[in-house]
Design brief:
Strand content of chain A: 15-25%
Radius of gyration of chain B: 35 Å
Number of domains of chain A: 1
Strand content of chain B: 5-15%
CATH superfamily of chain A: Winged helix-like DNA-binding domain superfamily/Winged helix DNA-binding domain
Radius of gyration of chain A: 15 Å
CATH architecture of chain A: Orthogonal Bundle
Distance between the termini of chain A: 31 Å
Structural class of chain A: alpha+beta
Oligomer: heterodimer
Number of helices of chain A: 4
CATH topology of chain A: Arc Repressor Mutant, subunit A
Distance between the termini of chain B: 48 Å
Largest sheet of chain B: 8 strands, mixed
Shape of chain B: globular
Number of strands of chain B: 26
Number of domains of chain B: 5
Number of strands of chain A: 2
Number of helices of chain B: 30
Chain lengths: 103, 904
Amino acid sequence: MVAYLGEFEQLILLALARLGDDAYGVSIRATLIERTKRKPSFGAIYSTLRRMEHKGLVRSFAGEPEAVRGGRAKKHVVLTPRGRAALREAHAAVVRMAEGVSL
Amino acid sequence: MNRLLNLLLGVGRSDHDRVSLLGDLEEERRARLARGNGRLVVFAWYTTEVLRAFGWGLLDSVLRRTSHDALRTNRRPHTGQRYVLFSWPDIKLSLRLLIRNPGLTAVATVGITVGIGIAAGMFGYIHSNFDPAIPLDEGDRIVALENWDVAGNNENRHSLHDFVTWRDQMTSVVEISAFRELSATMRAGDWLPETVRIAAMSASGFHVARVAPLVGRSFTPDDEREAAPPVVVIGYTVWQSRFAQDRSVIGQQVRFGSVDYTVVGVMPEGFAFPVNHQYWIPLRATPSAIPRGAGPELFVFGRLAPGATRASAQVELAAMGQRAAAAFPQTNATLKPQVLSYSAPILDIQDADVGSVVMGQLVMTLVLIVVALNVAILLYARTATRRGEIAVRTALGASRGRIVAQLFVEALVLSLPPAVLGLALGQYAVEIGNRITALDVMGGAAPFWLEHGPQPSTMLYVLVLVVITAAIAGILPALHATRRRGGADLRQLGGSTGPRLGRMWSALIVLQVAFAVSALPAAIKMGLNEIRSSLTRPNYPIEEFVGAVVSTGNASSPFGNRLLELRRRLQAEPDVAGVTFTGSLSQRNITGRIEVEGIPEAAATNNGLRGLTTLGIDTGYLDVYGLRVVAGRPFNAADASASNGPSTMLGAGPVIVDRTFAQRFLNGTSPVGQRIRYAAGRNGQPSPWYEIVGVAENLRRNPIDPRMVGPTVLYPVAPEQLAAVSLTVRLRGSAASRMNEGFARKAHQILAAVDPALRMGEVQARAQAESEDALAVRLVALMLSCILVTVLLFSAAGVSSLMSFTVSQRRREIGIRAALGASSMDVLRSVFSRVAMQVGLGVGLGALGAMVIAPLGDDVVLAERLAMVTPAIALIMVLVGVLAAYGPARRSLRIQPTEAVRAE
């Protein structure tokens, strides 16, 4: 069964799809700000990522510690096939709903 | 600091997430600093992000609550097992404890509700007034520019020339615009005339707001030319109510005063920029026609350019200010231009105000911490009785952290419901505060950025306060109670007297009583003064009166016969019982003391009394109000015509004083014929002498405390010689019902028939205006009674807990005493002695404190009465102590010697 996605979850999954291997907290937030003009907090992004990881939509792995981050490692996040399928389904649903509707 | 960050960000998160999140925050923080953001701004951003992340973690934690059975929660977590802060059994246990200790729950609920209510109210008020979010696109980048006159220590808005310079030369603030407010009588089609407020605004003002018109267009620079045809943009509300949302409104005519304006656009719903406006006309002001430093008062605003900050804009503007001061020393030498938040000049808020309000906020937060400490003491009392239970849990493998976490959750569950109540209480205070503030804003209507209901920021603040409260009230006693004691605590299960109450507890109770005795009387007196003065009632049937401000619209053009005609026509109405005018918009308080010729001590009696009111009245005033002249004579036409209006207030002439004045200043001598003057006006010179020709009944009375009614001096004015008057109409029967029947419209019609150019403000029943004043009093009374109840409750609860402990702790000793033949009185005496000592010490310290506080104010009446109130409060505190001790004392009498000794 394809997982149901909330709007913010969809946006984050799209950001992951766009960023590929370079997706982590800062880059995900920057992409969301640039493309949606929203300014989500890091806390909200992490909570959503944790939830989606739990659902198997994304998986994460630790990167190398970096000086610019005060010696802390990045948490890289990538889409899983299940996440990609859920995103595809959610997008298709929006397209189907919008068909023939003038906005 | 790092530990705190780790702690906050670790809530509800794995270590991996926490470290990564800290890294992200650090990376973003450095990036912001590299982009040139100020350290303080970045710090504020960082703190907010941490708090938001903490909030999300907390939410996750609650949502993820897991089901464990009671024993499993006590198990030390296995290696690698996630530490669960909020477990369902903990929450269930906390809820059960709330019900099992109703006294503690009630006291803590009241205390935390009041503490959080006050802190949240203050925060919400500051947020909505001092740093409001402007609900426009990038509203936080809209700023105001204003000249501050360092010589006069006030703002100077006659800044047309500076506005033009700023607009043409400034680079860090763009789209610089200005507006001024006008009011005019509006007529269109067959509508009734109505006085409306209009924003005369630069064409670029709409670009600053970034809101496009719904229909038609906004202004172009061409519209600002003096010779351009007059145009107006109207608001959605007007379009809806007056033009039935007709799109063909464009091109129709609206008349303001005697000028016809063509409607060119309609703004969308909710748009009320710059403050609370629904009509906009182009700002037309040609600097060449107006000398520097003169001209209309302008509010100047603009948008920060991309990359600019308020600090960088301030640097640029200050440099421009210095150049202007050098070039135009006559007008600009003492002017310092400032970049302010958009709302600051409109609400007349200066930086100093912000500082004092932030200080107030800190004090309010401290109040909450005191409350939390009190709750901590009470919880400690409960925790101490549960030492046996804690020891069992420890023996079963629960770590200290696990037990502390459980007690923290208990405190959190105890604090959450009162926090919600406190938020509601605070929101109520904010709504009242905003209504009071709005009275001073343009037109008395709320500015467009004011939002209703609790704001997310206030809710977040309350959440943080709850966590702080729970941390103080839960973790402190928990840490104290879980100090390693092993077997001693287990023995408590066998009935041994275990815990002892430390010195801190005793000291806090002493301080509590001392605080109540020293500070409460002054607070009560101040609150009661406010309430008593609010009981001052008009000495005439106010429900029959309506009033409005009438003006010619030009300060140098008096009414002349038009006002007499207005009076004649109004009086001809069957509903109208009388018409009178007063010479100023409101009763005017003169600072400075009154001197009576030949009675030097009269001046000294001014100290500490309520303000003196001076009022310019026409000859019919006393008759319309139904106030008798009890001595001397009323004003006659010759008095009025000899006067040149209020400008002669400092010129010699006849005056009528009221009874209060005669009683307070004239030493019992007959007032008529005596002469009075103001001791020192603003220029330091005494005014000329005025002769008292009559004594009238008081305008107001206070049945509870006549001292709350201030003295009044009435002087004659000829209203037709003025350009603005306050019109008062006495109606036959209730003014409210006449208003419902459309009296206000009728008044406007009559005014328009006399002269369409005359302006009339809102026609308002006088009783309604009075009730608005009562709002502030309600707020003070509410806060006062909340604080009073809280302090008394905490004192009582503290004393009661102390007594309960003393009794349970000395159970064995009391049993032995009883066995050895001590009488009930002996037992009671020994039980009461400690509480008596603490309450006595508190009362003594409090009395000393009251002696220090009392002379601080210069209010002699207050100081006199404090001397009576302090012993009363002391007595109440002793009574509260005795009553709180009564229950435990009775228990001590029931201790059976055999049982007490056997329990060992």
